[in-house]
Design brief:
alpha/beta; D-Maltodextrin-Binding Protein, domain 2; 11 strands
Length: 342
């Protein structure tokens, strides 16, 4: 009997000394998601977990995949739903409720879901970037408003993305809808008459057509992001004293995108999923984001990198539409735009 007790004690001691098995937390994201490896490693080591990122295309494609697989989810957490698709995600009942304590450090303007199925993580503004040198060389004043872009002086100088194929193009379409209301198509017809160039995606617009990035494109204005001037400085092959581009940030000229994260319904790793959302709102993660994804943190305590404070611009009055209004009308607006621009 004594021998058996000794063996049992030894077995318990051996079991307790064995390392706990590492779990895997699957996180579905859009293809633009990025984070420093050492930041993720810190989280993994602190929580004895391995994070597996499932990049699933653009924001719309990622949401579609999550909806199609919601009965057998591919991941535990989904990051990348933005305010243009938020209502659709909530209507699909994809997420479990979770209200992180760190939300107290987030401004109310970013809390678009009172039910707490999703948590805001970052924001950014789709704006028109312009090539400073072009306007200086041509002694041309910088447009200050959406209306200015239709003036003859700017004929053929703007390249924009198709809202049916580009999230950037969709954001700009929404800005015009917010500003002009029912007259947004008349505005687009005026841009068409003024030689606006429409391409399928942001990369083609920015790197092929825009003169401010390569110096070779024919258009000195492009629908891009308020953080693009900061990116020009950060990624410059030769160090720059100033950004070669800037943004038009007049009233309603930019559209604000807010990105969210949520716990996918049915996860077997709820506790870890909660910890990961808490981590995404931590100052460590929030301060890493700007130079990884060129977006702004929602946590008020997070410090911004110098490139953002010096070269990026935040509009005082971005265009705004409610997620419900976007969800109800997005497809119809795109279809009407497509017909008007043919």
């Amino acid at each position: 009997m004594k021998k058996n007790l000794v063996l049992l004690a030894a077995l318990i001691l051996l079991t307790s000394c064995q390392p706990q098995q590492v779990q895997t937390l699957d996180v579905m994201t859009h293809s633009s998601f990025a984070v420093s490896e050492d930041i993720i490693k810190d989280f993994e080591e602190a929580n004895n977990v391995k994070i597996a990122f499932l990049q699933s295309g653009d924001a719309g494609g990622t949401l579609n995949k999550a909806i199609l697989t919601k009965d057998a989810p591919l991941a535990d957490v989904l990051f990348g739903v933005d305010n243009t698709f938020l209502s659709r995600a909530l209507e699909a009942n994809l997420f479990e409720v979770y209200e992180p304590s760190a939300l107290q450090d987030v401004s109310d303007e970013f809390k678009l879901d009172d039910s707490h199925h999703v948590t805001p993580v970052d924001f950014g503004d789709v704006c028109i970037n312009y090539d400073k040198k072009y306007f200086e060389d041509h002694s041309l004043p910088i447009p200050q408003s959406l209306e200015d872009l239709a003036m003859p002086a700017y004929n053929g100088l703007l390249v924009a993305e198709n809202p049916a194929t580009s999230s950037t193009g969709l954001a700009f379409l929404l800005a015009t809808r917010a500003h002009f209301g029912e007259g947004y198509l008349d505005y687009w017809r005026s841009l068409k008459e003024n030689g606006v160039v429409i391409v399928d995606g942001w990369e083609t617009a920015y790197y092929t057509h825009f003169s401010g990035s390569s110096g070779r494109g024919p258009q000195p204005m492009v629908v891009s992001y308020g953080t693009s001037p900061a990116a020009e400085v950060v990624f410059a092959e030769t160090p720059l004293d100033d950004a070669p581009t800037a943004s038009i940030v007049g009233p309603d000229a930019c559209f604000r995108q807010i990105e969210f994260v949520g716990i996918l319904r049915g996860t077997q790793k709820r506790a870890l999923a909660e910890k990961f959302i808490d981590f995404m709102l931590s100052t460590q993660f929030q301060e890493d984001m700007p130079l990884q994804m060129f977006v702004y943190p929602v946590n008020r305590s997070a410090a911004l990198p110098e490139a953002f404070t010096k070269y990026a611009q935040i509009p005082e009055q971005p265009a705004a539409l409610s997620p419900d209004e976007i969800a109800s009308n997005r497809d119809a607006w795109i279809e009407a735009w497509t017909e008007a621009m043919q």
